[in-house]
Amino acid sequence: MKRVDDFRLKFGKKEYVPIMVGGMGVDISTAELALETARLGGIGHISDAMVPDVSDRRFDTSFVKDKTRFYKANIDNADKSIIKFDLGVLAEATRRHVEATMHAKTGEGLVFVNCMEKLTMNGPRETLQVRMASALDAGIDGITLSAGLHLGSFGLIADHPRFRDAKLGIIVSSVRALQLFLRKNARLDRKPDYVIVEGPLAGGHLGFGLDWAQYDLATIVAEVVQFMKTEQLDIPVIAAGGIFTGSDAVSFLEAGSSAVQVATRFTVANECGLPADVKQDYFIASEEDIVVNTISPTGYPMRMLKSSPAIGSGIRPGCESYGYLLDGNGNCAYITAYNRELALHPDGKNIVVMDKTCLCTHMRNFKLWTCGHTTYRLKDTTRRLPDGSYQTLSAEHIFKDYQFSVDQKVALPV
Question: The domain 4-273+386-404 is classified under which CATH number: 1.10.150.130, 3.40.50.2300, 3.40.630.10, 3.20.20.70?
Answer without folding.
Answer: 3.20.20.70
